[in-house]
Structure formats: structure tokens, C-alpha cells
Design goal:
The strands form two sheets. Strands 3-4-7-8-9-10-11 form a seven-stranded mixed sheet. The protein has helices spanning 2-8, 79-85, 92-95, 103-110, 133-137, 139-149, 167-176, 190-196, 203-215, 236-245, 263-273, 278-284; strands spanning 22-29, 38-44, 48-50, 61-63, 66-67, 96-100, 121-123, 154-158, 179-184, 222-227, 251-255. The termini are far apart. The protein is α/β, with parallel strands linked by helices. It has a single domain (2-284), classed as pyruvate-formate lyase- activating enzyme, CATH 3.80.30. It binds iron/sulfur cluster (SF4). Iron/sulfur cluster (SF4) binds next to loops.
Length: 328
């Protein structure tokens, strides 16, 4: 514990050269169902983030109440953001969860009428808003409550069936504004799922959640993401078919993106678990971090429904020219 307390003084939000990120509150060691996790409760200065250089991304504003994610996906695009904060080991992304405990108050203040233009807000663009920590802190629920009250359009992307806890709010939101609660399902293969997304809800349960949301009148789509060469690529059509059966309002395939910081982590895992695939990955990702997705979208959204954001802002995705814009 002492070692950790020493380490915290070196984290970026306490650094004298980077004073602006967070104000550290307290460090909480998880117990019971949160055993193995450490929560770093911080006060953020702002909560709505404007995406710089958004390019073709269908959203401009995001909220991420948590940093780090104990779902532990081996390919997680957001891992380098933890290194940026000052956490040294890549695995700390899975266990050291930064919790912006004042997130709800900040959303309330930043979306006050007269101050905010009612733009679409995307959640789940960096870390999962319904990761296990949400069961304890309920920040996403609080944020959604504010957005519903303000009739502010929003979209959520998650892998967690915990989102169904807030079904009542989503139903109310869908009556008032443009919303979308989408699930990321990269594979239905049990082994690949267990190996690559060890602490996420079963993909089948996620598809059940998609069905339940749509039955309740809440638009819910599926991101088939990320598609892992040699591991899940052959099952993409199966996921798309299952998503359609679940009534998904939109289905997008996204190939694995291995940016620096993620690539080393993923390739290390690949070498240990699938050495036969290492050569192919080296070749595929030798001079690029992204592969283009096959250009297809199935079960597209109705004109009245918002387009979902991709799982993470700069993941590769390839959509038809006619892709409707996210409502704003
Ligand atoms: S659920 Fe999303 S944010 Fe969480 S570890 Fe997996 S890819 Fe990363």
C-alpha cells in the first residue's frame, strides 16, 4: 500500500508540470465483488470533451466518467491513456480505475441551458460507461438522468448488460430525444471471447440486451468490433445474423486497430497464446495500425434513429457513403 501511495505522487494529475487534469480525492481498495480493483476517486475540472480532429467521426462531444476498465479486453484501444496518466504497467488499465466522482455535477453545470447547445453526446468512446465500477458509483446513471431531463440527444456504447439496469431511463429518453444504446459484439466464439474479453458479459447476453432495448422502444445496434484477424474474422457473418435476429437497428463491422501502446500489449499476448498467428499479424500491421473493414452495414437504422458512434474514436471503420449523420 505504501508503495502505491508513493506512486500516486508521481501520477500525472499530481505532477507540478501537468497540474490541470484531476484533483485526487482518495484511493479505495475494492472489496467483495470489486476485489482486485483499486478506485482512484478524483475530481475532474470538466467532463464534456470536444473531440479534436474528429475527421469522419460521427460525434463531436464525449463524456467518459471512468478511465481504465476492468473488462480487461486484450486489444483495448484505450490502454495508452492510462500510461499517459502515469500508470506504468499495461495491466494497470484493468485494475486501477480512475473515477471522476463529480461527473454528474459537472454534466449538470456544463449542459445548463444558455451555456450548452444541446449537441449529441457520445459515451463509451474511450472506456466502458457500464464497466463494473458503474455498479458501485452509478455515475453513468446520474449523467443519463441529467441528459434525459435536458432532452439532450446521446448515444452509449458498451459491452455490459449492466446497462439494462437503466432501461427505465432509456425508455424515457427515447420518448424525448434521439438516443441509441449500442453493444459491441466482436465474436460469438466462446473460446475467443474468453481469451480476449475475459471479464465482459457473454456475447449472447449482450445480444439479448439489444433485443430487450429494441422491444422497449430504445434504438440499439451492434458494433461487430474489433474483428481479430485469424481469430474472429470467420465468424463475422454469424454475429451480423445474430444481431439482426436481435432486432439491431444498425450493425457495423470494425477491424482491429493496433496503435502504438496497444500493439505491443496485443502482440505479447499473441506470442504467448497464438504463436502461429504472429507472422500474419506482423505482415498485416507492418506499416499501418488499421485495417479497413469490409464495407458493409446490415439492418441499417431507420431515418429517425441516430447513427451510433464507433467503439473508440479512432478505430478504423468503413461505412457506406449514405451513412446518416449523428443527430446533434
Ligand atoms: S470494454 Fe471497451 S473500454 Fe473496457 S477493456 Fe474492453 S475495449 Fe476497453
Amino acid at each position: 500500500m505504501f508503495a502505491k501511495l508513493v506512486a500516486v505522487s508521481e501520477l500525472r494529475w499530481r505532477s507540478s508540470t501537468q497540474p490541470g487534469l484531476f484533483q485526487l480525492g482518495r484511493r479505495v481498495v475494492g472489496r467483495g465483488e470489486y476485489r482486485g480493483l483499486t478506485f482512484w476517486e478524483v475530481e475532474a475540472r470538466t467532463i464534456i470533451n470536444r473531440v479534436p480532429n474528429r475527421g469522419s467521426l460521427p460525434f463531436e462531444f464525449t463524456i467518459n466518467a471512468y478511465r481504465g476498465c476492468s473488462h480487461g479486453c486484450i486489444y483495448c484501444f484505450a490502454r495508452p491513456t492510462h500510461t499517459y496518466l502515469g500508470f506504468e504497467k499495461p495491466e494497470e488499465f484493468d485494475t486501477e480505475i480512475v473515477v471522476k466522482i463529480n461527473a454528474v455535477e459537472l454534466v449538470e453545470a456544463e449542459t445548463r441551458p444558455g451555456r450548452w447547445g444541446g449537441h449529441h453526446i457520445a459515451m463509451g468512446t474511450n472506456t466502458d460507461p457500464y464497466q463494473p465500477a458503474e455498479g458501485r458509483y452509478k455515475l453513468t446513471r446520474g449523467i443519463v438522468e441529467v441528459l434525459v431531463e435536458r432532452r439532450n440527444p446521446f448515444s452509449i456504447l458498451t459491452k455490459s448488460t449492466l446497462a439494462l439496469r437503466d432501461l427505465d431511463l432509456f425508455v424515457e429518453a427515447a420518448r424525448k430525444t434521439a438516443v441509441s444504446v449500442d453493444f459491441s459484439v466482436g465474436t460469438l466464439d466462446e473460446e475467443v471471447w474468453r481469451q480476449t474479453e475475459p471479464d465482459t458479459p457473454h456475447p449472447g447476453k449482450r445480444l439479448e440486451a439489444v433485443a430487450r432495448l429494441n422491444q422497449a422502444g430504445v434504438p440499439s445496434g451492434v458494433l461487430v468490433a474489433p474483428i481479430l484477424p485469424g481469430l474472429s474474422e470467420d465468424g463475422v457473418d454469424e454475429v451480423i445474423a445474430a444481431a439482426r435476429r436481435a432486432g439491431a437497428t444498425h450493425v457495423y463491422p470494425i477491424m482491429l486497430h493496433l496503435r502504438p501502446g496497444v500493439k505491443e500489449h496485443y502482440m505479447g499476448w499473441l506470442e504467448r497464446t497464438h504463436p502461429d498467428l504472429v507472422g500474419r499479424y506482423r505482415e498485416l500491421y507492418a506499416h499501418r495500425s488499421r485495417l479497413r473493414s469490409r464495407n458493409r452495414r446490415r439492418g441499417g437504422p431507420s431515418p429517425n434513429r441516430p447513427t451510433p458512434p464507433p467503439a473508440q474514436p479512432t478505430l478504423p471503420f468503413s461505412l457506406p457513403e449514405s451513412r446518416p449523420r449523428t443527430s446533434k
